[in-house]
Amino acid sequence: MKTGLVLEGGAMRGLFTAGVLDVMMENGIEFDGAIGVSAGAAFGCNYKSRQPGRALRYNVNYAKDPRYCSVWSLIFTGDLYGGKFCYDTLPRELDKVDYETYVSNPMKFYAVATDVHTGKPVYKELDDMEEENMQFLRASASMPVVSRAVKVGDGEYLDGGISDSVPLKAFEEMGYDKNVVILTRPETYRKKPQAAAGVMKVLLKKYPAVMEALEKRHTVYNETLEYIHEREEQGMTYVICPQRPLPAGRIEHDPEVLKATYYQGRKEGLRHLEAVKKFLGREKENE
Q1: Average pLDDT of span 154-183
Q2: H or E stretch at 5
Q3: Which of 66, 125, 171, 270 fits a disulfide with 70 by CB distance 3.0 to 4.6 angstroms?
Q4: For residue range 109-141, what is the model confidence (pLDDT) as tens digits?
Q5: Are 48 and 107 contacting, i.e. CB atoms less than 8 angstroms apart?
Q6: Which run of H or of E encompasses 182?
């Protein structure tokens, strides 16, 4: 039986996930595979490179840097989150990914992006952090309207959350039977229909399949939550989510708010730690 880690997105809400992941890394919890969507992929890749603290560090250090996330970046690069800065300058120069550890870690890591021409999710294993895989990671976190579609190979992609926000079913189909799922919304949250759909249709006229996926996203998302709950009752899924709404929204430039979101994740990680070990059958490993 293979164990998996499934990571929802949510932009800066993803620092909650980073807090949970850091606690698990610090306590030696390992998985056979992990899959992330959007920020879940962008921050979750640090699990494979075994770099606790990195996601918080660079988000706090560059929270107010216009190259990282700003209207300036949107105007001059076409991306709210600067593509070159976030997926080249930052991981290769300013706060480096440990590429050697990433590649040598046997845990498989996957990211989810949405094909802009079909509106369907694409699941890609990122076995290294070379250019093509780094661009797919970027695509996974490229929010519609405020990001350009990212070309990877013969395809064009946007945010994986458009088509599969919490890819538990897909991961099970890949053979990961027992999964820890980290959500970035409280247990009672349910998604509402897409706001400003008329405006979105105009802005996304080049990608009607993306707009179609967005229009039914709330239904798909809420059905996914029900499935997760069913798998939890069956003892095959363990869910960690915030007990209350997170202080950070999708976009956040205040370092203190980012830290508060991260430490809320750490608190939940510690609260669930022993139960996660038991769920994975590893409670005796550290005795």
Answers
A1: 98
A2: strand 2-7
A3: 66
A4: 999 999 999 999 999 999 999 999 999 999 999
A5: yes
A6: strand 176-182
How many Cβ atoms are within 10 Å of 73's Cβ, its own excluded? 22
> Residue 287's pLDDT is what?
38
The Cα 18–Cα 105 span in angstroms is 19
Under 8 Å between Cβ of 110 and 36? yes
Counting every residue, how long is the chain?
A: 287
Three-state secondary-structure class, residue 234: coil
Q: Decide the pairing of beta strands 155-159 and 176-182.
A: unpaired
Closest CA to 214 of 263, 165, 273: 165
3-state percent breakdown (helix, strand, coil) of the chain, nearest 5:
45, 15, 35
**pLDDT, tens only, 6-20:** 999 999 999 999 999
CA–CA separation, 63 vs 129, rounded Å?
A: 23
**Type of residue at 227:** Y
pLDDT classification of 284: cutoffs 50, 70, 90: very low
